[in-house]
Write a structure and sequence with these properties.
Elements lengths: L1 H26 L11 H6 L4 E7 L3 E8 L8 E2 L4 E8 L1 E7 L7 E5 L4 E5 L2 E6 L5 E8 L1
Antiparallel strand pairs: 1-2, 2-9, 3-8, 4-7, 4-9, 5-6, 5-8
Length: about 140
């Protein structure tokens, strides 16, 4: 019993360490000057920017940037658990694949962290600010 407890604690510490490393790596590019986009570029863009900042046998860390009005498109999270950290919060609509389930509105604040199970859904930025997420999926 003691070994299981110790193993669980080590796993939590590993996940937190990897998440913090991912956050550090993901926030470094945010200090750079963003590229100047023409108005037509922002209108054409319908999907968020997705950057894999770390991937190995145990974890995948992805930085997602959702400009106003963009959406992910229906997608599945295949790994059982994930940690989502909001670098920049905002208002998102989480639309499940199962149409018998209602969509959920999530209002996230800067620095908010969530632990979420795997799901199949579409994420849409319905707010008036850009949303930046660092998502750590545990394999």
């Amino acid at each position: 019993m003691k070994n299981k407890s110790l193993t669980a604690k080590r796993k939590v510490i590993s996940v937190l360490s990897i998440t913090l490393l991912g956050l550090l790596l993901a926030t470094l590019p945010s200090y750079a000057t963003p590229p100047v986009m023409e108005k037509s570029d922002t209108i054409k863009r319908t999907q968020p920017k997705r950057e894999i900042v770390l991937e190995n046998e145990q974890v995948q860390v992805v930085r997602l940037t959702y400009p106003i009005g963009t959406e992910s498109g229906m997608h599945s999270h295949t790994f059982a658990n994930r940690v989502v950290y909001f670098v920049k919060g905002g208002k998102l609509s989480l639309i499940p694949q199962d149409t018998s389930q209602a969509s959920k509105t999530l209002v996230a604040t800067d620095g908010q962290t969530l632990f979420l199970p795997a799901t199949t859904h579409n994420v849409r930025n319905i707010g008036n600010t850009e949303v930046v997420i660092v998502e750590t999926e545990l394999k």
